[in-house]
Structures are given as structure tokens and as C-alpha cells.
Design goal:
- There is one protein chain.
- This protein has two domains: 269 residues, 3-Layer(aba) Sandwich (Rossmann fold); 185 residues, Nucleotidyltransferase, domain 5 (2-Layer Sandwich), CATH 3.30.420.240.
- The chain contains 19 helices and 17 strands.
- The strands form three sheets. Strands 3-4-5-2-6-7-1-8 form an eight-stranded mixed sheet, sandwiched between helices.
- Strand 11 and strand 12 form a beta hairpin.
- The longest helix is centred in the first third of the chain and has 19 residues.
Length: 482
């Protein structure tokens, strides 16, 4: 049995794929599993893969870059069930050791999103009396077919290790976010590959609507689209893969927001969104193993905080100073929600006094409340005179010139690396975190860096070199005979 037999056989999954709209997916499945493709379908294959000749054997990896509502999740579920049937039922676990179970992992940006593919997989199994007999141990996050378990896993490069993987399905991989890693998608894929190394025929499947030109999906597209290898990249607009989606809906989306709609429905990577800081730039500013520096005698400190109401976002504070060459982030503190804002203000006020500070600059969020509460503890809260996007822009030159020293904090690195520069229709740029991501630490650090660099530009010679300035004054007085 092959994958096309599986989705064609009414006794297996065929009932779910009998509509004509699934015909393009049959071509994609044939390409993934190295099955013959009819001459009439070669044009579609070439248009979607950029290749001249289809694979003749199953590929090691398949990356499906397809627009919204194109049918990706249902096909991913069919592939998951097919792999489980082959390795767990037909082969009866011959590829595994005694007592070992194979796993088809379903990963997404969160477990709730991954459950959609698992629900489809369970639905396909329920359509087949043959497969229902083989199914066991069903839970909300897994189902077993023979000696293979289809189950949801956390999309973490730590959590996917130690399994025998016959298939890994990475759903909407272009939108994965992780506050502890600068490149979560690359690291997760790298962690998955060893788990499949001992299983001939294991398949890594990535599927997503495209987003920005960054991350594992973009890297795979650049490296393998249009090139013959054991990695297949299939890129197609929504209506190519699912003609049932109304063109009027797509046209309306294009009128409202063309860059977003071209990504969502035309499967084009966005050109209006770019990374604000590259990982190399950020890593060059990290001081390895540095966590926090004590207050130094004579250093002039500045502080910037990013307040929060305590329900969802973190409350963060950065304290730093500058030497002749660099801006140094001495302290970076974060209090994660939920928390009492009053307690955090009290704690941060004590920390500010330890660095001889009586003033803190902060985000304009709830400036009146912050001003009042910090004043109670003897600290003046000064709202930033620039918006967050402008603070990031002001800090860019210092980061690019490696004139910043930041603590070895992986979450901070991840937030700085995931900042996006967006270009609006009018040509104006803005810098912010992606939807669903956070920038609380990044905002505090960027605000601090922008404050210190602004002060450095306006500082006088006498402030920078007080001893030399005083000597020059006395020298001029002497020359004048005073």
C-alpha cells in the first residue's frame, strides 16, 4: 500500500478525499512518496516545486508552503495516519526494539493548535472499520495504531529528544515563537532529525502559510525549491490546492491589505516585514556568563522600565551606564505575570536606590499611575519622550556597531532577534514584536540604550573629562595673568 492507495481506498481514508478538489494534493503526495505522476499533472508539479523531474523515491523532508484554507492540515493528518499504519500495523514494529514504540509527532506553536491535526487523524481512523480495530489508547492528545503512537508534542528542541520518530509534522512552522531561543524552528528541526536517523522511510513534514523571509521555512525554500534533492519544497497559492475557496474572498483581502493577503492566500513570503536585528549582531553584544554587575563607585547610571498591569505582560527594568566605548547593561530584571504592580514598584525602587538613582524613564504605558506609585517610594518616573518604535530605531546604531554589552540572557536575545521592521503603505517604518510574541525585556534594554546614547551625544567636555577641563581653565587663567 502507498499513500495514494491509502487516500483512495474507501475502506481506509478514501471517503475523506473523494472530492475533485483534492486532485492537486494527490500530485503533491505522489511527489513526496516518489510515486509516478501522470503526464497531465507534470505541469502542476513543475509549477509548485520548480523541478523538472519528480522524485522516484520517497523524500526525506517535505515542506508544504501553501496558502490559508488550502487543505494542509487534513493532508498532514492523512500522512500521519498513513505512516502509523505502515510502521505500526503493516510492519508490526519490525523497525523497533523490544517494547519500543514509534512516534508520529505533531508539533505546532502551541498544543491547542496541534490538536486540529490530531482531530483530523482520529476522524480518518473512525471512517475505517479496519483502522478502528487497530486503534487503542486514545486520549485528547494521542492515539495508537499498532506499535506507533500519533501524539502532540511540545515544540521545544529539548522536549522532542529521546523518541523513535517515524514521522514529524511541523504545523504552521513559519509562526513558531519561543521566548528562550533565538531560532526555535531551526533548533527543533535539528533536534528531530536524529530521532528519525535509524528508521528508513521516516518523514519530516513541514507545512505553513509563509510569513517573513527568515527561519527554517524560508531557509528550506531558498535551499531546495527548484533543486533536485531528497528535500521537496512545494509552494502553491490557496486556490491551486483548493479551488473551493472563493476568489471574491481573496480579492477582498487583497484590497484591504495586499502584503498580508499575498502571504495568506498567494503563498508569497512577505517583503514588507524584515528582521530588525540579526542574531549575529545581537550575539556580538552578549557578554558570556554575565548575569548582573554590582554598582560601581563613580559610575553614572541610567534606568529604563517597561511597566505592566500584572495580568499578562512582564514588568521589566534595565539599569546601565556608559564608558568611553560602550553602553553597558548592568542589571536586567523581569517580573512575570501575574504579580502585584505595587509590590514590583517597591522592589524596583529599592534596586534603583542601590545604584544611586532617583529617576527612572519608562514606557508611556499608564504613565500617571507609574509616576504616582514610584513617587511614593522616592523615585521620579519620567515618561519616555519617544514611542517604542522610535526607541528601537535610536538603539540600532549602537547594536550594529557592537557598542552595547548585554547580559547572557537567552530570553532577551530571543526577543531582540524576533523584533520586526514593518513598512506601511505610506513608506513609514515601524518596529515591534510579532503577533503573539513579547518584547518586555527588549523594550527595557532598547529604551536604556537609546537614553544613554542620547545623553552621550549631548554631554559636555567638562562632564566627560572633569580633571582635564579644570586644568585647562586654570591654564587659561594663568595665561591671562589672573
Amino acid at each position: 500500500m502507498n499513500a495514494l492507495d491509502f487516500i483512495s481506498d474507501a475502506a481506509l481514508a478514501g471517503k475523506a478525499f473523494d472530492a475533485p478538489t483534492w486532485a492537486p494534493w494527490r500530485v503533491a503526495l505522489a511527489a513526496i512518496f516518489g510515486l509516478p505522476i501522470a503526464d497531465a499533472d507534470l505541469e502542476l508539479f513543475r509549477a509548485c516545486t520548480g523541478r523538472e523531474r519528480p522524485p522516484t523515491v520517497q523524500v526525506r523532508e517535505a515542506w508544504l508552503i501553501v496558502g490559508r484554507r488550502g487543505g494542509k492540515s487534513m493532508v498532514a493528518a492523512a500522512i500521519a495516519v498513513f505512516l502509523a499504519v505502515v510502521f505500526g500495523v503493516l510492519r508490526r514494529g519490525k523497525d523497533f526494539g523490544p517494547g519500543e514504540l514509534g512516534v508520529v509527532m505533531v508539533l505546532a506553536s502551541d498544543r491547542r493548535q496541534a490538536q486540529q491535526i490530531l482531530r483530523y487523524a482520529k476522524g480518518l481512523i473512525e471512517l475505517s472499520p479496519m483502522l478502528v480495530k487497530e486503534a487503542s489508547d486514545a486520549t485528547t492528545e494521542s492515539i495508537r495504531l499498532g506499535r506507533v503512537v500519533i501524539e502532540i508534542h511540545t515544540s521545544s528542541f529539548r522536549a522532542v529528544r529521546g523518541f523513535t520518530i517515524v514521522g514529524a509534522i511541523c504545523d504552521e512552522v513559519a509562526f513558531w515563537r519561543d521566548d528562550t531561543s533565538a531560532n526555535p524552528d531551526e533548533e527543533i528541526v535539528a533536534a528531530l532529525e536524529p530521532g528519525m536517523a535509524t528508521i528508513p522511510g521516516a518523514l519530516l513534514l513541514g507545512l505553513s502559510t509563509p510569513y517573513w523571509r527568515r527561519g527554517v521555512l524560508w531557509s528550506k525554500y531558498q535551499a531546495h525549491h527548484g533543486r533536485e534533492s531528497d528535500v521537496l519544497v512545494w509552494k502553491a497559492p490557496t486556490r491551486v490546492m483548493n479551488a473551493g475557496v472563493l476568489q471574491a474572498l481573496i480579492d477582498r483581502a487583497l484590497e484591504e491589505d495586499e502584503p498580508r493577503a499575498r502571504a495568506e492566500y498567494m503563498a508569497e513570503f512577505r517583503t514588507d516585514i524584515e528582521a530588525f536585528l540579526s542574531r549575529d549582531v545581537v550575539e556580538a553584544c552578549v557578554v558570556p556568563e554575565r548575569r548582573e554587575l554590582p554598582a560601581l563607585p563613580g559610575a553614572r547610571y541610567v534606568a529604563f522600565c517597561d511597566p505592566s498591569g500584572g495580568a499578562s505582560d512582564s514588568f521589566t527594568l534595565a539599569i546601565g551606564h556608559e564608558d568611553e566605548r560602550r553602553v553597558i547593561v548592568d542589571v536586567l530584571r523581569e517580573r512575570r505575570a501575574p504579580f502585584s504592580p505595587e509590590d514590583v514598584v517597591r522592589e524596583f525602587a529599592e534596586l534603583l536606590r542601590a545604584y544611586r538613582l532617583s529617576t527612572v524613564t519608562g514606557d508611556r504605558y499608564a504613565a500617571a499611575w507609574c509616576s504616582e506609585r514610584f513617587q511614593v517610594h522616592g523615585i521620579r518616573y519620567q515618561p519616555a519622550d519617544r514611542a517604542k518604535s522610535d526607541l528601537y530605531a535610536a538603539a540600532l546604531a549602537a547594536f550594529n556597531g557592537a557598542r552595547v554589552e548585554i547580559p547572557d540572557d537567552r530570553k532577551l536575545v530571543a526577543q531582540l532577534c524576533s523584533l520586526e521592521r514593518r513598512t506601511a503603505r505610506g513608506g513609514r517604518d515601524s518596529i515591534d514584536h510579532a503577533r503573539g510574541a513579547h518584547d518586555d525585556l527588549a523594550n527595557a534594554v532598547a529604551g536604556l540604550v537609546s537614553e544613554l546614547t542620547a545623553r552621550k551625544r549631548s554631554v559636555t567636555f567638562a562632564e566627560l573629562y572633569p580633571a582635564r577641563a579644570k586644568a585647562e581653565v586654570w591654564e587659561k587663567v594663568g595665561e591671562a595673568g589672573g
